[in-house]
Amino acid sequence: MEMEYVRLGRSSLLVSRIACGAMGFGSPSWRPWVLSEDRARPVIARALEHGINLFDTCDFYSQGESERVLGRALSDMASREEVVIATKVGLPMGKGPNAQGYSRKHIVEAVEASLRRLGTDYIDLYQTHIWDSATDVEELVEAFDALVRAGKVLYIGAADMPVWQLAKAVYTARLTGRHAFASFQHHYNLLWREDESAAMPFCVAEGVGLLPYSPMARGYLPAGRDGLDRDSVRAGSDEYARLWYGRDEDRDVAAAVTDLAQERGLPPAVIALAWVLNRWPQSSPIVGATSVEHLDEAVGALGVELSADEIARLEAAYRPRLSHEHR
After folding, report:
1. Residue 222's Cα: distance from chain center in Å?
2. Residues 6+ apart with CB under 8 A from 161
3. Is residue 241's pLDDT more than 80?
4. Annotated active-site positions, please?
5. I need a labelling partner for 299 at 20 to 30 A (CA). Which of 88, 134, 171, 293 fits?
């Protein structure tokens, strides 16, 4: 399947329709399912072979080792201008109260550390990570703008922030002549659709690119009718999978995915990802692949068209959540 490319929001930057998430690259001592460098490199190589140009990591993943592994691999395998490197800031990276969050101090220190680990002169997309409600949004906007003006960062983005604060940040930047968020990375899949009510329509209306993560619900949907295999290595160390998924409605959605996959002769993971691709054609879902087969399936989903009836079947059992903050 030939790779497709879309603009990142209203920017002119073209990114692959599938993004390669690097949370699974780094050090198995951080999470047992994480690939060491020698095992991660073939996955990164396959992503490049498929035409994937957007690679998303974070300083927090494996406490910096994910950035190191990804940076070395991309330096060896691709020209810098061929790839779009995205990373994130915000979670604790040291001792003391200022080694995390979105103060100007931490942002300036964190971006320099990420540049060193990635082995690059600039970061294509620099994003907030888990949101801190105590953040001074104006300070964040000013600090991110300064990074762009200094040439250390080309584009800026946000992840999982309340839509009213996302809107405040975007409008503050535009009204003050500063660089605004080009993208919004958010939790989105057949089991988690809360951003459909406000965040995603806001992003589409305002030209903010959509980068949905966990499009296959951290392995819950591909696991089949019974949902996540809670005895697996990933599930045993993934506290978020246990926290976010497992309602009766979730099991019913997983069963619908399994049934449709069997009818279409496709893996459940392909159906789950195809739903995201079909519902939001301007998005670039982030796939956290830990094998070349995972990437092959993900790219294969680009060629899967779902009918309106099939989409309705997959969505029928879903029920909104009363509370869905990421903490």
Report:
1. 18
2. 128, 131, 169
3. no
4. 61
5. 88
Q: Is 326 inside a domain boundary?
A: no
Q: In the structure encoding, which two tokens stand for residue 103, read together?
A: 């103060």
Any idea what the CATH number is for the domain that residue 59 is in? 3.20.20.100
Cα end-to-end span (Å), the chain: 37
pLDDT at 238 over 90: no
Question: What are the tens digits of pLDDT across the range 251-291?
Answer: 999 999 999 999 999 999 999 999 999 999 999 999 999 99
- Mean pLDDT for the stretch of residues 23-40: 97
Structure tokens at 144: 């991110």
CA angle 77, 78, 79 (to 5 degrees): 145
**97-117 per-position pLDDT tens digit:** 999 999 999 999 999 999 999
Task: Determine, yes or no, domain membership for 101.
Answer: yes
Please state whether 310 falls in left (phi above 0), alpha (psi between -120 and 50) or beta: alpha
Mean pLDDT of the chain: 94
How many separate domains does the chain show? Answer: 1
